[in-house]
């Protein structure tokens, strides 16, 4: 099943293997995508669907060093390099819109931008800055309703720019403790106005952003990623978390979104998303459902055959294996990822992972040299 074609609403996929969004920090010039990034994504175009790294719809959302944006024409032109390269290889690609919110340091932001969040609580921990090294997160300013309205507009505008840049759709990043999940999670969202305090209040921003994006480009081109029970960036479970997410997904289902993408980080040491909740979320959403989190070829096939999901997303395996689909099809060994180059600028650990065909050719050349 993993290698079967799939209709993702109106987008036809060659297989059911999805490349997860992976922050790679290679947008070195004003957060603008470049030819190196185009090479990286094109190498992985055999995925049924590529979801790009988190890409900010706003100057205020560029919390990490060298992550890409999508809020000006230079970004559009840079991303066109990527989408053209992927489409030339027969692939499909959506851009993940990720506003980092309070997960930021001001040194990573462009001039005039600021760190914002639902409340004024500072995200625990530190993050890398190219100018000052590792630093504690910058305290955020609690967003006013005017700020919230502006952010919704930024998401919708970025969705429009994504289509202009040639993407097949967008994914709203409402996971991993970034801005949209910051509003969902009462451990972060201390608000008592209409954007906090209750399930309906905490879900409100995500639903308003989803509606605005759907109105801008069509719901069939808007997906969303969720990580209930995740602990990344100071989030964590809370009383009523399962019921809140089921209520959220039911409303997202009514919008007719492209897909819901649920992330379980237990393979990396986080608490698992309960199997019952995954099943309830799948039942709550009437469209395509993606699962991510620690899958290999065998477990992906099993999840699909047992109808736990329609598509399976894999991250580090795609990072280190540009030809992952072929390797899984042939049950071939996988390259191991190099964590030391995950977020460094340049081609090393980015576009230089060997393909299976390249390794076979190298083995042949080595044998020829040995016989000479």
In short:
The protein is built from eleven helices and 14 strands. With 372 residues, it is of the alpha/beta class.
Please explain how this structure is put together.
The chain has 372 residues and is an alpha/beta fold. The chain has eleven helices and 14 strands. The strands form four sheets. Strands 3-4-5-10-11-12-13-14 form an eight-stranded parallel barrel, surrounded by four helices. It has a two-stranded antiparallel sheet with strand order 1-2. Helix 1 links the parallel strand 3 and strand 4. The termini are far apart. The mean pLDDT is 96.
Which key phrases capture this entry?
two-stranded antiparallel ribbon; 8-stranded parallel β-barrel; 372 residues; alpha/beta; 35% helix; single chain
User: How are the strands of the largest sheet arranged?
Assistant: 3-4-5-10-11-12-13-14
| Strand coverage percent | 15-25%
Low-confidence stretches: none
Distance, first to last CA: 45 Å
**Count of individual beta strands:** 14
- Overall 3D form: globular
> What's the gyration radius in Å?
20 Å
Major sheet summary line: 8 strands, parallel, barrel
- What are the secondary-structure elements, in order, as H or E? EEEHEHEEEEEHEHHEHEHEHEHHH
Fraction of helical residues: 25-40%
How many H/I helices? 11
Q: What would you call the structural class?
A: alpha/beta
């Amino acid at each position: 099943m993993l290698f079967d074609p799939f209709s993702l609403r109106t987008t036809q996929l060659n297989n059911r293997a999805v490349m997860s969004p992976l922050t790679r920090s290679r947008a070195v010039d004003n957060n603008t995508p470049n030819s190196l990034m185009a090479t990286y994504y094109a190498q992985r175009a055999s995925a049924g669907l590529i979801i790009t790294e988190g890409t900010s719809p706003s100057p205020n959302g560029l919390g990490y060093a060298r992550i890409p944006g999508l809020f000006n024409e230079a970004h559009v032109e840079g991303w066109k390099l990527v989408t053209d390269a992927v489409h030339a290889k027969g692939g499909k690609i959506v851009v993940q819109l990720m506003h980092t919110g309070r997960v930021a340091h001001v040194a990573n932001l462009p001039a005039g931008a600021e760190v914002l969040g639902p409340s004024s609580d500072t995200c625990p921990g530190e993050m890398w800055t190219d100018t000052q090294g590792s630093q504690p997160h910058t305290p955020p300013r609690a967003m006013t309703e005017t700020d919230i309205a502006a952010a919704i507009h930024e998401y919708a505008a970025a969705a429009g720019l994504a289509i202009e840049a040639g993407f097949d759709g967008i994914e709203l990043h409402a996971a991993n403790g970034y801005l949209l999940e910051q509003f969902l999670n009462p451990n972060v969202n201390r608000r008592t106005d209409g954007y906090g305090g209750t399930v309906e209040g905490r879900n409100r921003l995500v639903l308003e952003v989803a509606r605005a994006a759907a109105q801008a480009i069509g719901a069939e081109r808007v997906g969303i990623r969720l990580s209930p029970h995740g602990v990344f960036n100071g989030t964590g479970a809370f009383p009523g978390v399962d019921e809140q997410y089921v209520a959220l997904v039911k409303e997202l289902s009514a919008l007719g979104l492209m897909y819901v993408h649920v992330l379980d980080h237990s393979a990396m040491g986080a608490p698992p998303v309960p199997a019952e909740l995954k099943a309830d979320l799948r039942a709550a959403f009437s469209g395509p459902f993606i699962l991510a989190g620690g899958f290999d070829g065998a477990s992906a096939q099993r999840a699909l055959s047992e109808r736990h999901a329609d598509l399976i997303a894999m991250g580090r395996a795609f990072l280190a294996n540009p030809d992952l689909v072929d390797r899984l099809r042939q049950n071939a060994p996988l390259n191991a990822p190099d964590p030391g180059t995950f977020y460094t600028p340049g081609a090393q650990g980015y576009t230089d992972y060997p393909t299976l065909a390249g390794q076979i050719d190298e083995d042949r050349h080595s044998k020829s040299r040995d016989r000479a």
